[in-house]
Amino acid sequence: MGTTSGSPASDTAPDPSAGDVRLGGYAPLRDYAVIGDGRTAALVARDGSVDWLGLPDLDSPAVFGAVLDAARGGRFTLAPSVPYRAERRYLSGTNVLETTFVTGRGAVRVTDALTLHDDTALTPMRELVRRIDGLSGSVPLRWSVEPRFGYGTVPTRLARRAGVPVATAGRDALAVCAWDAGEPACGSATISGCLELGQGRRALIAMPFAHQEPLVLPARSECEARLDATCAAWRSWAHDRLYTGRWHQSVMRSLLALKLLVYAPSGAVAAAVTTSLPEEIGGERNWDYRFSWVRDSAFTLAAFLRLGCPAEAHAYFWWLMHASQLTHPQLNVLYRLDGGHRTPEKTLPWEGYRGSGPVRIGNAAVAQIQLDTYGELMQTAWQYARATGHLDADVARRLAELADLVCTAWQEPDSGIWEVRSPPRHFTQSKMMCWVALDRAADLAERALIPKRHLDRWHSARDEIAAFIETRCFSPRRNSYVRSADSDDLDAAVLLGHLYGYGGNDHRMRATTSTLDRHLRHGPYVDRYSGEDGLAGDEGAFLACSFWLAESLARAGRLPQAVKLMDELIDLANDVGLYSEEIDPATGDFLGNLPQGLSHLALISAACAITTANKDAAR
Question: Helices (DSSP H) in 389-524: which residue ranges?
Fold first, then answer.
């Protein structure tokens, strides 16, 4: 049977009871996949609803934001109008999503992609394509596009151009082009349609978008060709990556997820696609992660270099050097994807995911002092210099000046890697990373890659930092490096000292790994720290900490334990291999923003380290 069209039953989304269950209109965070085009990205739920999409860029205001306000956020739904079961996957080697809906009347397959831009032709600025193929029987479907420009704060006007429904708001416009997908109907703020798709038949819905430029209305053949070309481009990119170790599928999916976080115009890497997804349901720990953190830089560059992504490594390093130049010699905690350093924080009048407000845009952590960032930036530069054999003269000068700054700044308290909202402290991990900054600066100077006129001062300050750590940041009672000077609280972040090669007492670092394994770990889950942080409420287990522990176990020679933990962590991914920032150990529910770049970076780092340790042990 072919496609048949008809008027939609209503302007609302398909009844969630027909497929995957939502709670108060919200899908479980674990149910989201992500698609993207190197400029922006969208969250697609298992039930076929696109619940998040910033346009034109990843950090732009959302046009679809139902993940943060089910009633007012806007979405693009597409699903059978009868009960169904959904199965999905990414097409191999791509970030193109394929969802199969199986009903009592037949089955259909939906292929979703943000198509990749073609500079050689007149194409839409951004384009979401949804292709529906009839696999068996005859399946009735409904779809609905509810654009809410500017986080729902800008009025939307609906009209038709050449018979095509178009939504506009100021300088933004999107169209809904439907072929064999039913005749689109325009409601007050919704474009919708319904169809019945038989075996062997195909329908297509494309949503081109424009910002400050003419809106291009594509032909069906062009959309089909771009979708096929997008699949081919992703496969070509993935084919050239280098990884042959254990957990290959998970490493490659993590790398593909990381590629979606790369903002192609600048080379920056966002921490996540989303803002304000809560670390606790109903809590206040909701932050905007659509920025690039210096904290992630060393892991990011290492992943790109290890897995054969030289173009991404080069672009990211030079973006980081450009962004940090704007605040030199101080470092911001984070920078905008365009390299800017102003990220004022404000709240939106949205209810938040499952009532978890506030919904924040911008991030006030930019104003914090986090001394660990100096170590991470210097580690990044050191890795880049080792890979390329050189540094630009201006970059070399600035790195030497950063090392000079660390010689005095390390003595100050800071907010630490976890960006606590309590008073600054002398956090151990921050001191360790200051040690790393000076150690790497000294090595670069000795290799004649940066000026060495203050080399003796760097050596002296590095030794002073080590003395401070060893006398005030290690607890004999805990047999562990602790969260901050003169405390007994524990902190998984000190594992980064191990991973980055802090040159203190190796016996103590191994003991710390054991202590954290006993006291912060619960099954595969690892708490970030013990003690207060100036915020109300609790949070889930921070996934990156679990991967750090797995890597530390491997580096400490405890390979069987490292492999066992890693196997458990691989099983915590959702059905398409993605991770959020945190997981609720009691329920397995995802918490926090997603996909979380640091979780995937930590997975890559741990997998590579364990693979190397296994090879070394076999020799």
Answer: 393-409, 428-446, 455-472, 495-499, 506-519
